[in-house]
Here is the input.
Amino acid sequence: MATSRSLNMRVAVLLIMVLSVCGSEFSRKKRKTLEEIKKINGNGPYVGLITVYAPEETAFFATGAFQSDPKHPFVDLAGRRFRVGKIHNKKVIYVRCGVGLVNAAAATQNMVDMFEISGIVHFGIAGNANSSMSIGDVTIPTQFANTGLWDWLNPNGIVDPSDFGKLDIGNFNVPRGEGQNLLGHVGYSTEQFYSESGDPNTPQRVIWVNTTRQWLNLAANLEGIRLERCVNSSFCLSEQPKLVIGLRGATANTFIDNAAYRDFLFQTFHVSSLDMESSAIVMTSLSNSFPVLVIRGLSDLAGEQKGDNHIQIFGPLAASNTARVVIEFLKTLPNPHYALL
Here is the structure.
């Protein structure tokens, strides 16, 4: 994990670079931002909180648990607003990253590079690929795979033996398996994982990236937490939502609303949640030697439903249940948080 000294050195170097560019409005704004960050870091460390898009943010702030810092309430950095405050007396910095792997990785790297962070909690909603789970449930996975790194081959192509999965598109012809499908095959390639603990420019090839065991163990104390069942006073789910810890999740730059592909992902990779950011945030956190936990509420059936996707109906409920679990997890974190690293 980055030390306070090394972090302050990085901020100082950036400040010197900015000061060397004289006279421009941009440099003055940048200098003010870096000076503000230095003051904020003097009060750290903080738990970094990262969510994705507006409905999740709305649900999070609706809990009323976030108390904004009276002196330094926020910093605008690289197009994002990083909000500084406390939740249950735990110091936190919150940011909304935006949809997709690139946004997720960029926001996480900004967070760990610029702020005195002890770890990252990522949260949001997700599609449900597991028929034993229900909309409204919240999952805290142990592992994530990026299922969007494809080797897309011609029909006569051979999938690389090092790929960890294979999708034969022709198997989905109707009638099943008949005729020829020119879309061919998709091989699922492994990630290249760079880390501070590894040799420079020598990535490990990984399929699964793991969230932090110590934080998972703490989260296990939350099993049985009471979650909301009703969207409003007249519309409720048929089953009581639950928190499930220890499953797997898949991430890709694809919104899944297709029953056949949903089932393929579950049968092939045994994943329960489908989203577009988590693996990037886990990879970036671990690459920089920070602990990380992911909390995702299930908002839809990823195509298994009849008719339109349910995310517009149940997304706010899933986001609300997720925010509740995040707040309760922060309550369980010892203070200072870095004692767990």
Notes: The mean pLDDT is 91. The longest strand covers residues 117-128. The two ends are 9 Å apart (CA to CA).
